[in-house]
């Protein structure tokens, strides 16, 4: 069953051919885990081309699926990106760091274009459908006593979005081994197929739509003690395991 699931911050192994699987409608799941490698690149387009053409790092880690997110607004620095990998279990996600060390890589195809910032593993706290697109990533602090209530409200918001006909997927992810940058941080992701689709959701939200889950989103964020950062990103899947 696990091999039929693709997670974000999971696995996508349902289709026999990678080209087909990349467009497969993936079920939402809170199993497995993700890793993200935060990087600064001098040439985002060139780095993305290298990631697409050189899958050696993805193969080395044993990831089920992988891709990138390029920051479009809210940058900490120019060339801000992350490379994500999805795994069927947290065991495999954590083990991946022992199979490939991006900071120790000698592959000039990568090292000439990027500066590695840090890596982190993520556990999805609510069912998440991996369908990369135009995404908002909000890094928040939520007291541990409120985390399950926060997730419950985000789950209600997701149901409201679907009921209103919006193709937006929400996710909440807890960091594991994120160092001082991601310690005690939750990543909240809202994912739409395109920038205009994302804007349509915001138009409805700011117009006061209750049906699309706006109230549940507000109630969830009332539990947030601090917003650490807020980015808009363009994301894509570029690798699928055989």
What can you tell me about this protein's structure?
This protein is an alpha+beta fold and 242 residues long. It contains 9 helices and 8 strands. It has an 8-stranded antiparallel β-barrel. Helix 6 (147-163) packs antiparallel against helix 9. The longest helix has 17 residues, at 147-163. The protein starts with 17 loop residues before the first helix and ends with a strand.
How does the SSE layout of this entry go?
Elements: H1 18-21, E1 33-41, H2 44-53, H3 56-61, E2 65-73, E3 80-87, H4 90-95, H5 108-111, E4 114-124, E5 134-141, H6 147-163, E6 169-176, H7 179-182, E7 186-192, H8 195-206, H9 214-221, E8 226-240
Antiparallel strand pairs: 1-3, 1-4, 2-3, 2-8, 4-6, 5-7, 5-8, 6-7
Helix pairs in contact: 6-9
The residue-averaged pLDDT reads 88
Strand residue content: 25-35%
How are helices and strands ordered from N to C?
A: HEHHEEHHEEHEHEHHE
State the end-to-end distance. Answer: 17 Å
| Main sheet attributes: strand count, strand direction, barrel closure | 8 strands, antiparallel, barrel
Helix content: 25-40%
Unreliable sequence segments: 1-23
Shape estimate: globular
The number of distinct helices, counting runs of at least 4 residues, comes to 9
Q: What's the β-strand tally?
A: 8
Query: Which sequence of strands runs across the widest sheet?
Result: 1-3-2-8-5-7-6-4
Structural class designation: alpha+beta
Cα gyration radius (Å): 17 Å
